[in-house]
Sequence to fold (427 residues):
Amino acid sequence: MRYIFYSTAVIQILVFIITVYYIFISLFGLYKKKTAKYIEPNKRFAIIVAAHNEEAVIGNIIDSLKELDYPKSMYDIFVIADNCTDKTAKFADIHGATVFERFNDKQRGKGFALEWMFSKIYGMDKKYDTIAIFDADNLVSKSFLKEMNNKLSEGYKVVQGFLDSKNPNDSWITASYSIAFWTSNRMFQLAKSNMGLSNQIGGTGFCVDIDVLKKIGWGATCLTEDLEFTCKLILNGEKVGWAHDAIVYDEKPLTFKQSWNQRKRWMQGFADVSSRFFFKLVWKGIKDRDVVALDCALYTIQPFVVISFGISTVLTFTQSFFNIPMNVFLIKFFLNSVLGIGDEMWNIIMIAQFIYIPFILLLDRKLDARVLYWYIFYPLYTLTWLPITIKGVIDKDKKEWNHTIHTRQITINEIESNRENGKESLA
Fold:
């Protein structure tokens, strides 16, 4: 029982410290800086859409890209039809994209496909300043390149856009995904941008300067190529910028099975990247007194934080079953004696955590009656991260890529029309 008590104490206190750290960061997302003045388009973009058997949705993203509010002579659309067995290449060509078909059974996955495409862009007669990367199921807001041009003109070499949802109300799974992404955009990405920390690449809806890409190389071919490349950037002294108004609408999985497979792949990739980059980032952080590197190192170990939180919860219930003093009182003692937070404030904190996320959603005008209804199911979605994370860590060395099937037919005009109507109703 003594072993359980002290083991639980160590784990709970570590989890508590990390939780407080992220809550502290999230507070910087409560405000949004005024948008910088408009900068005349000066960046030439090569837009890459990575697609594997996406005939159902490939036309919609190309159409949305063709409607971008940016000089048409300053961007081109390229589609990678990667190991496709359907009509993705044909439909992409019909909708006006330049299509490159790739067939490679040994090097499968988005990271390999992007590496292959980058080399082709380097060899083209037409030269570009920046590469913008999207997934085939995305829809892109009309002002995306304009917002990216502004941010890149500030000096950033890599910039991530706002990852929104194009199907938040299709099921409790899509709603939970949407709530998670919306809150992350504000409490994590915008907050870090306001603090001067590096943002994280989100897998789609980001831009990278070609010279930087050539200098450090892509080489990100694991299951979470976005996290891997972010780590490489930070180790090379670069920071990822954040464009809050450069919006990309992403299709969320409809079913729990699809969600399980996708999130398991994310956790496999996280565990893999953590094993290769965590200590490098910590060493850079200590050697160079680089807070950005230390913050990124902490982010890479999220799977282990989730598992620690789960273990802490299980041990707490074990303590209760055996009538062992609960370590939550150690935390309360710390708050009382060190921070001067009494029981009344503790109760306020416990209540506030349930209304914090709806308040964050309200800031970006994402809160309505339907979202509040779906929010009831959000704790269940959160709890499922524990078994998914455990399985992902166990399978971290397995590199198979499970393709998420995308079928949601909707146009960018419908999305943005609904968005504007929602804003008007909230106003």
Q: What stands out?
A: The radius of gyration is 22 Å. The chain has 17 helices and eight strands. Residues 423-427 have pLDDT under 50 and may be disordered. The beta strands are 45-51, 75-82, 98-102, 130-135, 139-140, 158-165, 206-209, 240-250.
